[in-house]
Design brief:
6 strands, alpha/beta, disordered C terminus, six-stranded mixed sheet
């Protein structure tokens, strides 16, 4: 990573929006990267929606204030309406599938719907849905190693919640695995028959 990566994380308060950004930021700091994490305390907070911007860079960050993003992690419909248009062409948008009335419309960015809440419920605790989403994000945008994220969790989670570290690791891995499977599936679909690329068959 030579340039700064600028991203927005947005959703309802209580979905772990700010902590997702914090964990990513701490993980980047552990790796010696320059980091900016800026939570939103604007008028939208009164409507129950929270967001934060995160910048990760190998060099000094000139300004923490950005309005166009390389990626967006979106956890609710109001956030999609607000920030879909702010993703730079060629960027990436990750969204929580179960929270959307309509999916993203952009065709000039990469879009990945993630069943983060569903995966978290499978693990027995819906509160780790943000970690599932973070895992999916990191599989496609490997700004930080997963080991650094797990180390960062120890600093972000209060010590009384450290018994939840294994569960958070499971959630992170579930997100990584989901995004990997989806990527493989997309490549097979794009390859199609007659390309010389083997395609899995299911009987």
């Amino acid at each position: 990573m030579h340039q700064a990566h600028e991203m927005i994380v947005s959703g309802f308060g209580g979905q772990g929006v700010l902590s997702l950004g914090q964990i990513l930021s701490y993980g980047a700091m552990i790796e010696g990267k320059e980091v900016s994490w800026m939570p939103s305390y604007g008028p939208e907070m009164r409507g129950g929606t929270a967001n934060c911007t995160v910048i990760v860079s190998e060099s000094r960050i000139s300004s923490p204030i950005v309005s166009r993003f390389d990626s967006a992690v979106i956890l609710n419909q109001p956030s999609l309406e607000k920030f879909e248009g702010s993703v730079k062409p060629g960027g990436m948008l990750f969204f929580e599938e179960s929270a959307m009335i309509r999916p993203p419309k952009r065709t000039d960015i990469e879009v990945l719907g993630v069943p983060a809440l569903q995966e978290a419920v499978k693990l027995g605790k819906k509160q780790v849905a943000n970690m599932v989403m973070l895992g999916a994000f990191l599989q496609r945008c490997p700004l930080v190693q997963s080991e650094s994220i797990l180390e960062a969790l120890k600093g972000v989670l209060p010590e009384r919640h450290h018994h939840l570290l294994p569960l958070n690791k499971q959630a992170l891995m579930a997100g990584i695995e989901f995004a990997f499977r989806r990527e493989r599936s997309s490549k097979r679909t794009l390859a199609g028959p007659g390309t010389g690329i083997p395609v899995e068959r299911h009987n």
